[in-house]
Design a protein that fits this description.
The structure is a single chain. This protein is an alpha+beta fold and 143 residues long. It is 41% helix and 16% strand. The protein has one domain. It has a two-stranded antiparallel ribbon. The chain has a two-stranded antiparallel ribbon with strand order 3-4. β1 and β2 form a beta hairpin. α3 packs antiparallel against α4. The longest helix has 17 residues. It is globular and about 50 Å long.
């Protein structure tokens, strides 16, 4: 049980980094975590490691700038998480250009260590997949 708790804890972004995203992009995260889980799973926070903060931050910046510059319907983020070793970013009211931005960042996440942000590769540890650099992978294998 302790190992499972450690793995789940690693899946949460540092609360200060999460707050920075929510504060920087209030239109994308209008209620932060204060949302009904039936409406949005963002109530559980950003469910990935700190290493992907820059990817998420840049994606949010690009999405919001595109929306503001083109007077478009506001996109609302409903979930950000790790799945099968890659970043997943789910939002409402996207169009094909925003879907392309999301796809690009999700696919690039397979080259960035989820924990530290350095160059990473997809790793397997007993069928548990994560994108990690060599140093973080060694630590992860020891757990």
């Amino acid at each position: 049980m302790i190992l499972r708790e450690l793995k789940l804890k690693e899946r949460k972004m540092d609360i200060e980094l999460e707050k920075k995203l929510f504060k920087s992009y209030p239109k994308l995260f209008p209620k932060g975590r204060s949302v009904n889980p039936k409406e949005s799973l963002i109530c559980f926070g950003i469910e990935c490691g700190d290493g992907w903060f820059d990817l998420i931050n840049k994606l949010c910046h690009c999405i919001q700038k595109y929306l503001d510059d083109n007077d478009m319907v506001q996109v609302v983020v409903v979930q950000v998480k790790e799945k099968f070793g890659g970043l997943r970013f789910y939002a409402h009211n996207t169009d094909t250009l925003i879907d392309g931005m999301i796809w690009f960042v999700e696919h690039n996440s397979f080259n960035v260590c989820e924990l530290c942000g350095e160059q990473g590769v997809l790793r397997d540890n007993h069928n548990w997949y994560r994108t990690l650099c060599e140093e973080c992978y060694k630590k992860w294998k020891k757990k």
